[in-house]
Amino acid sequence: MISDVINAKDLPKLDPVFGQLSFDDHEQIVFCNDKDTGLKAIIGIHNTVLGPALGGTRMWQYNNEWEALNDALRLSRGMTFKSAITGLNLGGGKAVIIGDAKTQKTPELMRKFGEFVHSLSGKYITAEDVGMTTEDMDTVREVTPYVTGISESKGGAGNPSPITAYGVFMGMKAAAKFKFGSDVLEDKSIHVQGIGHVGEALVEHLVNEGAKVTISDISQERLETVRSKYNVTIYGGNDVYSEEMDIYAPCALGATINDATINKIKAKIIAGAANNQLAEDKHGKMLQDRGIVYAPDFLINAGGIINVYAELENYGRQEIIRKTENIYNTTIEILERAKANGVTTNTAALNMAKERIEARKKENS
Question: Is 94 a catalytic residue?
Fold first, then answer.
């Protein structure tokens, strides 16, 4: 009896794939299971009009499979638009592995995951994401060529995190130019939330520019390490969203701009590395109404995919840097387009990405 086991709040889950907004016409969703290694993974392939779907693999201890599926769908959809707006001939895909990366990840599990990736014959190409390392991608590479972000010693472009951070830095400077009339970040108060590999690299750029940087993270050990390394301030309050600051840079998990936080935010600019920073589309409009400049996340955090795309197109470091620095110009273009058309910056960025996809559809037909 369904009524005995399903709560009212769970009714939307009766259509857990096709019926949810984040599905958004995905081409393919692959559920991967292997009893021997404990692998439970989901691969989302959103769109391959521009090319094969490239996107990282995230390993995370989700509360349930529903959360994992929704994350895979939202992330793979975001990768479609990230590649399109950056001018890369790639589609959008993403994978999530359900589990604790610190205690449950093994070489055997990674190889088995690589076998599932290989079974897709190149329609999906994986890379590094949260809970993954370059060494993990090297392990996947043992069983499939459809992986990027492998070690430079093995012919890859290496860890994409520093390039991702550099792209965020470029997008942040563009947003500052739009908001303040100058892209100089010296003496600007900037809060970096989440200081993993990308967040720490962003902190380094900001400190070198002379910004006043405050950091927060769930790991006290990471906080102490980064503080001692860059002489920045650890946030000591309990509600960062209510703090006065020039720029808020979310660099951990997404959806920090939501119903509970949005009316408290006092930052003048939001520009960070996290994916899917807006919990809902309406939050982009709410930021706009309050005069807060939002640099679309899937645009300014595209440095990582630019870095791994180099492995497919065989271009070098100089071209990686050039393409990443162009995020500055695209961000300015998006902010100006949003202002001229009276739409949110997120909508303007999505429209630009969709225009490129539709143009390629017409070419292909």
Answer: yes
